Request: fold
Amino acid sequence: MTFSSRRVVGILKADLLIRLRRTSTLVLLLLMCVTAYFMVADPATGQTLMQVNEARVLYNSAAIAMATAVLASFLIGIFGFYLVSNAVERDLETRAGFVLAGTPMSNLEYLTGKFVGNAAYLATVTLGYLGSVLVMHLLRGEASLQPGVYLGTYLAVLGPPILFVSGVALFFECCRPLSGRAGDVIYFFLWAMVLGLAAAMSEGGDRADWISFLDVFGLRFILGSINSQMPEGARGLSIGHSSFDPSRPPFVIHGIVWSLGVVLDRLAACVASILMLFGAMAFFHRFDPARVRGPRHGSRGAL
Reply:
C-alpha cells in the first residue's frame, strides 16, 4: 500500500476546520491578544518587556520577537497539549474512526494526518498571537517593523515546541495508560522536566551538541543568542514584565545570528516529535472493537 498525501491532507483539513469553528478558539485568540498587550509594556510606566544588566532592551523587531516567542513557547508547552489531545478520541466518540478503519487508509497516513492537524492548529493560534504582537510593535516599537525577523524568530523558537506538543499529545492518546486524566498529570511533569533540564544545562555552561535534542522549548537557544550579544561581565537578564534603571541607555539586541549550526540545532530539537509519531503507531488500536471499549475512563471533553 502506497503512502497517500491526499488522505493525510483530508485528515488535516477536517481536524483543522472542526477546531477553528469552535468558540473556544476565538476566546483563545482574544486572550492571546490581551496577553500581548500587557507583555509589551510601555517603558514610560517604568516596566519593560526585557532588561539586561538593569538596562531596558530597545524595542526593535529582534528584541520583541525573541521575548514574545519565549513567552509563547511557555504557553504552547503548558496549554497546547490540552488543546489538541483529543484528536483520536473525537473520532472514537463520533464513530468516524470505525468508518476510517474500514478504508484503505493506513495507520501511518491516519496518524500523520492527526499529527500535522495538531501542529497546524497550534501554528494557526500562534499566527494569531503574532498578529497581535505586530500591532503592539506598531504602537510601542522604537525601530522599524521587520516582518521577516519576526517570522524567522518564531519559526526557530516555536516550530520545535509546536511539533513536540503535537507528537506527545498523539502518543499519549494512542497509549491507553497515558490517556485521559492520567496523561494530563504526567504531561505536566514531562513538560517541567524537559524545560528544567535544558535551562539547568544552559546555566551550567554545558554546550554539548546532544543538549539540542532536549532544548525543545528553545530556552537555551534564546538565552544563548542573547548572552552572545551581551557585553563581557554583564549580569542579569529578565524576560517579561520587569523594572529597569532609566538612567542607563537602552541595550540593543540584533536578533538571531543565523548559521548552519543554528539550523541544525533547532532541527535536532524536532527529533523527539518524529519519535513520538512512530511511537504512537506502535500503540494505535485502529479502532479495533476488541481493543476499544468506548470512551476512555476519565477522558476529557472536546476543547
About this structure: The beta strands are 47-52, 55-56, 237-243. The mean pLDDT is 84. Residues 107-140 form the longest helix (34 residues). The first strand starts at residue 47 and ends at 52.
